[in-house]
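Ex. 9. Protein: Phospholipid-transporting ATPase.
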Amino acid sequence: PDCSCVGEEIWVDSRTVYIGHKEPPPGAEAYIPQRYPDNRIVSSKYTFWNFIPKNLFEQFRRIANFYFLVIFLVQLIIDTPTSPVTSGLPLFFVITVTAIKQGYEDWLRHKADCSINECPVDVVQQGKVVRTQSHKLRVGDIVVVKEDETFPCDLILLSSSRPDGTCFVTTTSLDGESSHKTYYAIPDTMAFRTEQEVDSLHATIECEQPQPDLYKFVGRINIYKDKEEPVARPLGAENLLLRGATLKNTQHIHAVAVYTGMETKMALNYQSKSQKRSAVEKSMNAFLIVYLCILISKAVINTVLKYAWQWSPDRDEPWYNHRTEHERQRHVVIRAFTDFLAFMVLFNYIIPVSMYVTVEMQKFLGSYFISWDEEMFDEELGEGAQVNTSDLNEELGQVEYVFTDKTGTLTENNMEFIECCVDGNVYIPHAICNGQILSAASSIDMIDASPGGYRREYEDLFFRALCLCHTVQVKEEETVDGIKRGIHQGRPTSFYISSSPDEVALVEGMKRLGYTYLRLKDNYMEILNKDDEIERFELLHVLNFDSVRRRMSVIVKSSSGDYLLFCKGADSSIFPRVVSGKVEQVKARVEQNAVEGLRTLCVAYRRLSESEYQEACHHLMEAKLALQDREQRLAQAYDIIERDFVLLGATAVEDRLQEKAADTIESLHKAGMKVWVLTGDKMETAAATCYASKLFRRTTQILELTKKRTEEQSLHDVLFELNRTVLRQLCDALVFFIFFSLSVDCLDFGLIIDGATLSAVLKPNQEGAGHGNYREIFLEICRNCSAVLCCRMAPLQKAQIVKLIKASKEHPITLAIGDGANDVSMILEAHVGIGIMGKEGRQAARNSDYAIPKFKHLKKMLLVHGHYYYIRIAELVQYFFYKNVCFIFPQFLYQFFCGFSQQPLYDTAYLTLYNISFTSLPILLYSLVEQHVSMDTLKREPSLYRDIAKNSLLRWPVFLYWTCLGVFDAVVFFFGAYFLFDNTTFTSNGQMFGNWTFGTLIFTVLVFTVTLKLALDTHHWTWINHFVIWGSLLFYVIFSLLWGGIIWPFLNYQRMYYVFMQMLSSGPAWLSIILLITVSLLPDVIKKVLCRAMCPTATERAQVQCSLISVCMVACPCYMCSILLLPFSLHISLCLVSLGMFDMYFVVTVPASLINMLIK
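Predicted structure tokens for Phospholipid-transporting ATPase:
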């Protein structure tokens, strides 16, 4: 639009909204109606028509599913040794189960969408209120919203029932903040009260296209009045009411829709985060590739050997298998390729397709254990832990680096005003006594003498600054037990609410010092001074706080007509802009408070002349009206205005450490994790918190890499000096250990780095020859530090730190935990992101993989749940590959004894049901309820976490062991049955066994062996374990009896008829089954006994300890005798274990039990 106004520029990527769908007056601008989506919310993925094709497409994008589809098609196209049912049925089962699960979840989303889209909404049409449904709203509609109603779309506030044109809103459903936020109507429309007045408005809104940032909005409104030039007013986030927010303490508002449906900010935030993959999933894919290579190798070997065996003419066409003329004429390459595919089909069961479904079910069902954990439920919040994604459960057991925020994460974010320093003099408010606020005179404790006139002026300005420079809202009456109280002892009481706990603490602190902030009314801020006089200041401009400037300011006009700019912020952002005041005294007090762990803010002011104020207004208006680069222009305007300050003083606020935060950090250290604190606070405050939380100990040698030090030395010199210090200490310790067998305790380093130095370290192009790579040196220093504190961090720098550690050569698993919006970037960057349900909103919790109420719950989540999840899924993955090797390798060996004719060893039913029915439930249940060590032991012994670190149970040596064990068992099954079958008269009546009986015998031994192997690995037995394990074996026997005991009319063959019963009628068959199962299980049992005896892990020692305790407690009903004998037997047993004599502990514990019985 060609409209001359301040800040006008060409802005292409914007939209024009015609309020009430009215055309602009003639000659103003061209009317170009634009098409926008309706207000329909669609969170579902599928429709009735596209569900089947879209779902199938998504499922077959998975390599395993696509592979089995190809195998199934090959079975349909060529003559293969097995029926297509053997591949098609398991694949159909997997696809169907997944489709049903996803379809049900999508149906629930459809139901939720319908309930939202059909909500009633009031719309102003031709001066009247018309009720319609939410999905029928259009951009430009004028909407009426009443108190406690939810906004149906993103709206620009036009007018309010409140006389000052404001309304109060809670955004709990968006970011979890329950505090009342104030939004402002446009000054030119705030006086509209009736629908007729609102409908008479002639205006257009120009604003940016939809984008997901909840806290950013850039636009302007052009209001047409008669034939005058349109009046342009800036629009910002303070004018935009977001869909999902709720109207509070305001009877009704009128607003115009600017973003609807899937273009609302809430809908844009539905978009899923980038997919995170766990280390276990990567290992699974690597193992799958290995098994695919084994499969191809088997097929190639058998194909080559088949043609080598058939090279002789007498073997080429045996009398029972004459080839047809068509087969003789086919080219040998085509025949070989067909045979290769047939062998691929025959051996394809080595790839466990059902493993993926079992893993998905294990993750989905297992995630409920976190949600159900009563120990992780917080009574204060009334909420427990939440799981936003179940794909990373096992990753909780692999964490090596923990990156944590400080405020609200390690600390309570519950601020208490401690003191303030005004012009170098310290003021300490007294506590409230017996619920009574002390009088103003007695509530100030000044260290120095009574203030003179000069000091009194600074004191008043300081207290006024803190009463005016904030965004606190006042709730003047509070209902308690149904009784409203608004006056206390003749003076008004105020209940303060704000999105920032710091601001509430400061305003309440001023109230205790005699200056009470009363209200904001008609754009005037009222305060009650200590002389009980009400002072009024006109609020002209608010320069909002942001994390880059780290300060906020207000411009007010006093009753005497003076223009005052009050500013508060971090010392690093205030001191450089100060031109006068007692800087050194205030700075010394700030540093002292920071060392004590208090949060400090500095306060300054500046008097503005009329011309300076007008110039400031010009800069602000020009920046606010800009549609493009508004944030940068506002930052430039703030920079021009916020300068030449007079320093007034500083405040100190205490943020207490969270309950058990120190214990949690200590446990994480013992578990082998490195904890980094990333905070925006100053170094001294953060360091004090680190000492209090036991991140740093008194023996910790602190290494500083800060801006102050790099100003004295070059960054290159500081980095190399720190690196030399660390390496020298490590070398000394190594020498002591090698030559003197002495361990040096003082090897505990802690590093402190600030944001400015980190930027220099991460700078991509280092200047100067020979400086090397600063990143690598920095990482080398960090690797040798047990804890790192990063202070003065911007949100983006937090993510950069996490990314730097992730990309290091060790590729460690990282976890980030925080509670605020400034922590979202590092939570999304880390392998595992955990959000705290804190007081800074729920953005961190919404964007995280897991959410917990308090930092202390991290201990159980990692050391218990993470440990269990990893142990369970590692066993699940290895067991699936093991049982499929046991299953298919006998089939490979069988080809050497059947002329490589592709004759299957097992019946079609056994091939189909092996992974689906006979062996699936026991491992699924194991992966849900197994507890190799008790929960109490895991919490008491955090060092057990080290046993599973670095994916230890899914490393290649462990994988090879399981594979070799599977090959060994398969060889035992096959050749054991083969040699036992050498005497063909196996039954009492002299009847010989055939090939199907041979295969059934092997399959029976296979099913019992792999199931009993899992039973031997189970440590935590419950009734459901017994039911599933023994029930699976019973189900196999019953199925085999039915399958072979009935002539099934729908089958075109009856080769299994009476086979299983005939086998069970043979005594040698029973003997061979028992013998082969025993021989198969023996090596694994021997290996475990030897490993436990010679080099037991910490986990195995803990298991022995728990066993001893349970043995002694069971054998001794007399509790006191158990107490007396337990330490003695436990001590000797542990000594025997440490000497490698594991089995001898029974020699000690059993006599101890007998002595207990004799004493009784």
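Check your answer against this statement. The chain has five domains: 14-22+34-39+137-269, 40-120, 396-407+670-735+747-761+775-853, 411-431+456-476+494-655, 864-1106.
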